[in-house]
Specification:
By secondary structure, the protein is α+β, with helices and mostly antiparallel strands. Helices cover 16% and strands 36% of the residues. The protein contains 1 helix and 8 strands. The strands form 2 sheets. A 4-stranded antiparallel sheet has the order 4-1-6-7, with no helix packed on it. The longest helix is centred in the N-terminal third of the chain and has 26 residues. The radius of gyration is 41 Å and the shape is elongated. It starts with a helix and ends with a strand.
């Protein structure tokens, strides 16, 4: 019981001290005490150097583009005339055919990186000799030339990135 009375008295004393401090601040106008003026002996007699204009330095920060780990595939069929082209359009074995394309022919695709390197497939049969090339990220990964009237086939599994 004595402990509760002591705690209560301490709390009341704290409130009284806070109230007195508030009164002192209000009576003083809430201002900080002013420093006394001091005379400086031997002040410079020359003109005070002028300060140049303020300068604003502006820098534009470019935001880094997120790096994509998707597969950038480029199929190419080189030759003369026309050809029938068959290729894997998504890296999952879905074959797409384009008959009678004008050579040279190029198709660029972006495949999602699923963690397993896909197999690229490109076949072309033209009126004359044809050459097929498959590039991944700009580097040729497979290439083949054919004799006239034969099929050029470029297939292979891509290496992991």
């Amino acid at each position: 019981m004595a402990d509760r009375q002591l705690i209560g008295r301490i709390a009341i004393a704290g409130i009284v001290v806070a109230a007195l401090a508030t009164c002192v601040v209000l009576l003083n106008g809430g201002e900080e005490p002013q420093a006394e003026t001091v005379a400086v002996v031997g002040e410079p007699t020359g003109a005070v150097p002028s300060r140049g204009p303020d300068r604003t330095i502006t820098r534009t920060l470019s935001q880094a583009q997120p790096v994509s780990n998707d597969w950038q595939i480029a199929y190419e069929l080189v030759g003369t005339g026309t050809a029938t082209v068959v290729y894997d359009s998504n890296g999952l074995g879905l074959v797409h055919q384009e008959p009678q394309v004008t050579l040279p022919w190029r198709k660029e695709l972006t495949w999602k990186n699923t963690g397993t390197p896909p197999t690229v497939q490109l076949m072309g049969q033209g009126e004359g000799a044809v050459e097929c090339r498959v590039a991944v990220g700009g580097a040729v990964v497979t290439s083949e030339k054919s004799a006239p009237g034969e099929v050029a086939t470029c297939t292979g599994r891509l290496a992991p990135v």
